[in-house]
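Lab notebook, bench 4. The sequencing result for the construct came back, and we need a structural model before the next group meeting so we can plan mutations. Quick request posted to the team channel:

Model the 3D structure of this chain.
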Amino acid sequence: MNMKALFIGGTGTISSAISRLAVRSGWELFHLNRGNRKAEFDGVTQIECDIRNEDEGSVRKKIENVLGKNELFDVAADFIGFVPDHVKKDFNIFNGLCRQYFFISSASAYQKPPSSCVITESTPLANPFWQYSRDKIACEEFLVSKYRECGFPITIIRPSHTYDERNVPLGVHGKNGSFQVLKRMIEGKPVIIHGDGTSLWTLTHNSDFAAAFVRLMGNIHAIGEALHITSDESVTWNQIYKIIADAINVELKAVHIASETLDKNGGLYDFRGSLIGDKANSVIFDNTKLKRLVPEFCAKVRVDEGIKMTVNNILSNPELQREDTEFDTWCDKMTDVSKK
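Done. Here's the predicted structure in token form:
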């Protein structure tokens, strides 16, 4: 009998790669979402449901209708849980309905600024700069309390900067993703790099993330644990932007602006959280715990190779080329200010 998994969401950067690999690995997979964007491959059973707005009884009934009487999901995973109310509702729905519950937290929850650039799962959780991170911490605290009180079978995963073929990983970008930065490079315009560009960062391709995640599904040693999944490769932001420029075959024209300055002049963009509370900090992730649970795990997609594949995919597919004139104007303003 196939193992059964239910993903809340299932079509995002991380969850789409996990879904694809889970199906190939023999899992019977269900997606619970509003149906606005469906899986781009076969093997997934869709459950159309707005879990955030429908009542718990209605959600559970829809799930039980496809699950079968007296059956359990081997795995339930929430990829779109952001605040404590989300996971509290999950607990009420899935307690007694699954053998393992995954919550996707965030590595931005780790202490900022970090007392050490080497991050392990024992690094304190504290981020005074970003409400998003504090909400993830609160979600974790609720779930840990339920694990301790009644044995709710949690596994908490903390991704860092995970990317796919649809978006180039950047430090500073607008609301429409990465394309406007690529467009600026193509047009010979300067692009903004936060700080002096020398802080260390870790990028993880979603296929590598999926390889580790799927091996944690149904893994008894992961119950009650929190762990991050990242590559072991560290690069600077200057290197990241140079890789992008090289992939386009243009000269990198970088303007370095302090993260604090970007925060003060961000306007509609939350650079306080995403930079000061995350990307402006040098971090090196220690994946010892992950490799103890999944001994064979090794990230295979090197940063330069992954970014080049992503750039080529975006430039080959017009539907991924979402322009952002508002962000472009803001970049021009900030680069002009930096020259004064």
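The first strand starts at residue 4 and ends at 8.
Will bring this to the meeting.
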